[in-house]
Each structure stands twice: as structure tokens, then as C-alpha cells.
Amino acid sequence: MINVVLAGCGAMSKQWLDAVRQIDGLSVVGLVDLDADRAKARAREYDLTSAVIGASLDAVLDQTRPDAVFDVVVPAARREVALSAFAHHCHLLTEKPLADSPENARAIVEAARRAGRIHAVVQNRRYVANVRRIRRFLSSGAIGAATSIHADFFIAPHFGGFREEMAHVLLLDMAIHTFDAARYMVNGEPAGVYCQEWEPTSSWYRQGSSASAVFDLGGGKVFTYAGSWCAAGFRTSWESTWRIVAERGSLVWDGNDELKAEVVLPGREGMFDRTEPIAVPPLDPADRVGGHLGIIQDFMRAIETGTEPETRGADNIKSLAMVFGAIESAETGRRVTISREGQ
């Protein structure tokens, strides 16, 4: 049995606890929130009557001595939660983003290394079935190495609340999902970015609802991202729409169920290379999916076996570096180098 304390009992905690309900061998022994009444309400909702409730993470960890902490607090509190977890010899699984600044991200990853604890991030778009299929298909070499990766994200949600007031709202709140998926699917190593943000006259956000970025993913791979939180009409999938151009063909994905590829054939028809459809194989049984559920299961497996989970902080910090690099580029109007030292 793996015992965990969940810190942060806001709306997002419901997704975590819904997943926990489906997992054998995992017990929530404590709930922590600055508003203890909210923690108590969540305990009643999920029948966690034996869980210790409190407003202080340190105090609850002292009392329960769990194996791990689930961090569902606001990003500004991530570092404090992480350091508390590691000081109590706990493993840590945190909601995205890993941290609210590059400095705090590096501090958390380094603290996990020093403590010898497993640290992972809920980067759940990796656990989408078609993301897995694309990664495996490209790795097979069926259409050669990827050279150009293009993603479009156009959705117009009226959230209300903090998102409509925050700075860099698209890049900071949502884009990391698309950035991480791109990096994962083509095995990219981010090296640089140029980005521009703007606010359309029709926007209801304070700042940064629309952005366009060009990333160098190393090895001759370029990733372009175009996105908006206020583009009404012809809504894309939450997973974005994709075109991946490779050496001997291309792949397109609508972000939902339509996934197609074409491979180049010998010979030409006029000016154009001949192509034909090529099947993208179905999901492999070894491919792990399931969003929060899949990631929590991987995290548990890592604790039990002493291995590293796929979304470990030391890797996920590279996707976060893409976000902060894009923000810096948008603020300065220049290309920003994403150095390994900055990750």
C-alpha cells in the first residue's frame, strides 16, 4: 500500500481523486488546504473519513508519514510544497506546470535529486492515445525523420476568473501541453525560440491571449505554434491540430480521431512527388494512456520498482523551459536561446 497526502483541495483535486478511486494499493491518508473547511468537504465527498485534515502540510506530513505527496496547489506555492515533501522523505507528483518560474523549477528538480526522491509532473497530454501512436510511428522511420512540426490551437473559452486577468495567459496556462507533445512526438531537444504575443480587439483577456512561436528542436527540426484563446468559430481540438513533415512524407492529425499519413513513392507526376497513404499502426499494448489515471499509475510503479517515471521533473523542465523562453522572447522581441543550463 502506498500512502499519500494530497495538498490543494480546489477544483482540480477532483480529477486526481476521481483517478485515485480507480487504483488499488493507493490510500489518501491526508488532505491539506489553506481553507481547512474545503479539505473537510472534499474528504466527505470522496468518503475519506479516516484522512487527516489540516491547513499545514508540514503538520499533516509529521502526523501521517506518507510515502508520497500529491501537489495540486497553485503554481506559486509549488516550491514550498516540494521542499516540504522532500524534507519529509516523500516522493512528489505535481500538477502542471512544474513551477511558476525557471528559478523555482530548477530548485525543485535539484531538491528532488539531493533527496533521492521521485518527482514527476502531470503532463497528461502525453497519455493521449494518438500522441503515443504518432511517437511510435515516427520512431519507426516509415516516413523518415521529422523535419517540420506545425500545431494550431484556436479555442475561445470564456473562463471568467483569474485566467482573464493573468499575463501571458495562453503561453503560461495552456501552451505547455502542446509544447510537451511536440517535443515528445519527435524526440526534440529545445534550443531556441522566437515568439510574438498580441491581444485582438475582440479579446476579453487582459494580456497574451494570442501567440505565434517558432522553436528550434535540434537536429534540424523546427516546430511552429499558432494559438489563440479568443478565436471564435472553427474551434480546434484541445489537443491542437497537427501537420508533421518528414523526409519521405507527412502526417496530419485533427487532434481528435482522424490521423493520416502519406509516404513518398519513386517517380513524379509532373512537378510533384508521387505519394500514397500509409497506415499509422494502432495503439500498442505497451503504450500507456489514461490522463491523470495513467500518470498516477506510472508514478506508483516508479515508487514500487525504483525506476524513473516518464514525466519526471528532470525531463519535464525542458517543456517548461519552452514556455518561459517563449515568454521572454515575446517580452523582448528577440530570439531566445534555450540552454541546457537553463533547464
UniProtKB/TrEMBL annotation:
It comes from Mesorhizobium kowhaii. It holds the Pfam family GFO_IDH_MocA_C3. GO terms for molecular function: nucleotide binding. This is Oxidoreductase. InterPro entries: Gfo/Idh/MocA-like_OxRdtase_N (IPR000683), Gfo/Idh/MocA_oxidoreduct (IPR051317), GFO_IDH_MocA-like_dom (IPR055170), NAD(P)-bd_dom_sf (IPR036291). Residues 2-121 form the Gfo/Idh/MocA-like oxidoreductase N-terminal domain. Residues 131-251 form the GFO/IDH/MocA-like oxidoreductase domain. It comes from the Bacteria.
